Amino acid sequence: MGSVTATVAPPTGAHVTPWFRTFGAIAAAGFRRHATYRQAAVAGLFTNTVFGFLRCYIFLAATGAAGTVAGYDRAQLATFVWAGQGLLAVIAIWGWTDLADRIRTGEVAADLLRPVHPVTSYLATDLGRAGFAALARLVPPLVIGPFFFAVYVPRHWATVPLFLLSVLLAVVVCFGCRYLVNATAYWLQDVRGPMILWTLGSGVLAGLYFPLGFLPGPLETVLRYATPFPSILQVPLDVLVEREPMSTGLALVGVQAAWVVALLALCRLVQRRAERRLVVQGG
Amino acid sequence: MSVIEMDGLRKEFTVRVRAGRLRREKRTVTAVDGVDLRVERGEMLGYIGPNGAGKSTTLKMLTGVLTPSSGRARVCGLRPVADRTRLALRIGVVFGQRSQLWWDLPLRDSFDLLRHVYRVPAGEHAARLARCRDLLDLDGFLDTPVRQLSLGQRMRGELTAALLHGPEVLFLDEPTIGLDVVSKQAVRGFLAELGRAGDTTLVLTTHDLADIERLCRRLVVIDHGRVVHDGSIAELHRRYGSRRMVVAELDAALPEPPVLPGAPVQRVEADGRRLVFALERASVAEVVAGLAGLATLRDISIVEPDIEEVVARLYRAPAAVTGAP
Questions:
Q1: Residue A11 maps to a domain
Q2: Which PANTHER family match (chain A) (predicted)?
Q3: Which chain A residues touch B113 with a CB distance below 8 Å?
């Protein structure tokens, strides 16, 4: 090699534009990487659709003669289900073990050898992945649902941008939780235990198995504000179906943003702790 | 200032071993046991040792992915663990046993992503990539996803990926492991070229001693976490008494092996028609002259000392015998 002296800028806060460029490039690569697996996207879409019908019929049955339950009417419930089915892949609530696998095999060493913080680089990749999922997995259920069910269309113009912002925040909150669950591999090697807890906990508490409004009022309030789970799924869906007045919707998105900050800070803290005691597996 | 400095570098791991049906005992294993080493800019250092000797652990500490238990390490004047992200811009690392490329992206996209990750100006990136494409013959598989590359192709990709940001130090952990002869030659040729340019410091761990012979003037042997040899390959031979051999093919076997001063017979083969002498004090000419008076010589050949044999002797020797250099 001829000239091999590094002339690259250090990644400090003074270089905000290059930082975004790097972040954007990693996110774009995340998009491309996931766009490779088109058959998996089709298979996932099929499963989402089947379960969409199943969940929709069950929830609609819960409305009974009154036609409403827990503050949702039938059309709102249909939207809640079909948008929720689409969001599952966007937030990637289950099945993400990339970090844990790389810790177990020692491949994580390659992540640590990059000039980008691992949390930043995994987040950028995840946002790229979510971008692909939004096109391939969120749009189709939103199109399929209205063919078979009367769905709720937002009345207020601000709902759609607020929903999109809420989805973005939901992806980051979910990423933070998944990163923490995966990071237990630094201590445990095998993450099956924490993963089972996460799968069960997130399904119940995020509003996937049933809208949290089905729970007693005080319990729902505690879950909403004191745990990150509703911020993963319930909040964007409630925003979309306008279950609450706009001001409450804004407040809930604010709670999501607070969880984003808290979880990303916690991820960095855990990562730092882990690196201190890290044993890179293999020769 | 040396580009790599290690003072009393040490790494201990705690392992739990079974000590009964339910009981587990904690045991401390010392992987690296007080290594002191200086590597100067532009040096090509071979860092070898048997499995479990502490080679990879040392490399992981120098690259900042593993925190030392004690001791001090500096690479390019930086503290590897504390300044890891800054150091990452100045070093390149290739692990033969694991990939740094993105599994599902074509090589070309991986390289482009690295340009952004390391924030390399487009012109510099293009120039370095062009050079690697030329020397490592990458063009045939630049658009193939990494998961579909053969091991040899992937390793050429890994080398390129490690060099695109123009590192000052290149750490190579078994870069030729599992490669066929042709790929090995390609990798060695490339590294030799890199070494000739003289501005990249190279630290190479390997089990293939031909890599070392071809590339490194300086050889550090580590065993049980300690440095047992630091010097040239010739010094290693001298120290461990490896000798050149003279193989003499005779027309007919002698009734008994001849005694030549300074060149004892090591082996008698082919029913006594092939004799192998070790050159201790005698020269080749003296052995030939001595033999010519005793028998009819059909052929004579000289065998250079085998580094593998020396190193095998070194690995087999108990740590106490080899001691510190």
A1: no
A2: INTEGRAL MEMBRANE PROTEIN (PTHR36832:SF2), SLR1174 PROTEIN-RELATED (PTHR36832)
A3: 25-26, 29
Terminal CA-CA length for chain A:
28
pLDDT tens digits, B146-204: 999 998 899 899 999 999 999 999 999 988 888 888 888 888 888 898 888 888 999 99
Question: What residue segments make up the domains of chain B, in order of their start?
Answer: 4-238, 243-304
Å between A50 CA and nearest CA of chain B = 29
The answer to whether A39 contacts chain B (CB < 8 Å) is no
In a domain, A283, yes or no: no
Domain count, chain A: 1
User: What is the domain extent for residue A99?
Assistant: 16-276
Is domain B4-238 in CATH 3.40.50.300, yes or no? yes
Contact call for B104 and A37, based on CB within 8 A: yes
Partners of B50 on chain A (C-beta within 8 Å) are none
CB contact under 8 A, A7 and B124: yes
Cβ–Cβ below 8 Å for A1 and B194:
yes
pLDDT tens per residue, range B80-124: 999 999 999 999 999 878 888 998 899 999 999 999 999 999 999
Contact state of A109 with B51 under an 8 Å Cβ cutoff: no
